[in-house]
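Quick one, T. Sequence first:
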Amino acid sequence: MTTTTRHTVACPCGHKGTIRMRENDAPFTRQWESYSLEGLNGGSTEVDGFLSWEEVFARIAPSCPKCGQKLTPDHLTGD
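Structure tokens:
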């Protein structure tokens, strides 16, 4: 089974976007995670296993489409 979770990222300029995380949470199967962006510039990544937020941000390099600010895990809102 695949679970999708969205994490809000807020730029200091006021723009908000999300990191969409999909993961395989089925028991007795290969663990994987996939990350993509909604409303932000940057890339996507998929990995077997798990990533820390620092690794996720390093791989997808999210930035604000409004002002160009590079975003970091400190910009996660917890929403």
